[in-house]
UniProtKB/TrEMBL annotation:
Segments crossing the lipid bilayer: 12-36, 42-61, 73-92, 136-161, 167-187, 208-230, 242-263, 270-288, 294-315, 327-349, 355-373
Name listed for the protein in its UniProt record: FSR family fosmidomycin resistance protein-like MFS transporter
Stored InterPro entries: MFS, MFS_trans_sf
Keyword Transmembrane in annotation: yes
Amino acid sequence: MPTNQTPPTRPITLLSLGHACVDVYQGAVAALVPFFVAERAYTYAAASGIVLAASLLSSVVQPLFGALTDRWAMPWLLPVSTLVAGAGVALAGVGDSYVLTLVVVAVSGIGVAAYHPEAARVARRASRGSHTAMGWFSLGGNLGFAAAPLMVAAVIATGGLHASPLLAVPALAGATLCVAALRGATVPAAEAAAARKGRDRWASFAKLSGAIVCRSIVFVGLSAFISLYARQRTGGGDLSGTAALFVLYLGGAVGTVIGGTLATRFGRLAVVRWSYALTGLAVAGVVFVPGPPLYLFVALASAGLYVPFSLHITLAQDYLPQRVGTAGGVTLGLTVSVGGVASPLIGVLADATSLQTALAPLIAVPALGWLLLRTLTEPEP
């Protein structure tokens, strides 16, 4: 639950910047897809398989890391996992083997999986339960997503896929930031123990997790194919596709900050429910509106997907106060990564029909998430 204490700003700022350096590698995988299609002649299904490789293994192991951090504090995971995430993506363009590409991208996913549960635990304690502070922590990850297509385009468009080792630079910076953040993110033992008091509400947590899966399916589907789709719908080239992916990620950064502020005024669950309703309408615009207005609907969809992002984390942790690591692992890992499972299905349908037809089912998915959320109540104090 939120508290009235003002959280220290330096640890949250450093954690947010470190979060950005890690989530660059989640965004980088989707940003690499058009280059794999262009340079290696991958089909939509093959390219989406790479997105799946980055998310599937991560989805399995991230709750495991969450359970481990509930038993033992593992702050060293933050810098180490950041380096692993960067190494996997940096090697993705080395060599032409599809299998090798899948393996190294999966390794990057493991690094991302190891980072998030412990980082969410550290950030929640350093934030003293503040929605706004957790929003800033989440903002870092969103900015990393937003920077990914620009970083990938700058490196790969200039040097080709074989220049991918240069993509390791953010990991080196992120590991340094994590070490600095951990030095100032300690919390008194009595305060940390008090934060763990409360009753675990598994039924509510399960409904919330189901809604986040719906959100994940929409986000991963759009992030994997919006670049290619924008080229088709706007008649532009590589730049139009990169711009669409950038808008999708940058809108998320703005949405995350707004989400924390709105939740303080209107309540978390009300904001989350309205966000899911907005997302369905915005995705319909993405699918059916041609030309430059497409970018407006991409931005609206991004806001709808990301306004509730940090609120998902705090709700999950408050529904499972005895297992905040598990809550973070499932919320930031399993439920988010499950969306990657739908990505190859979208790719197969796109190969058989068209991208527009393949993306159309995403319009209905947020409505299912809204139905799961409508029966939830705020966690007990």
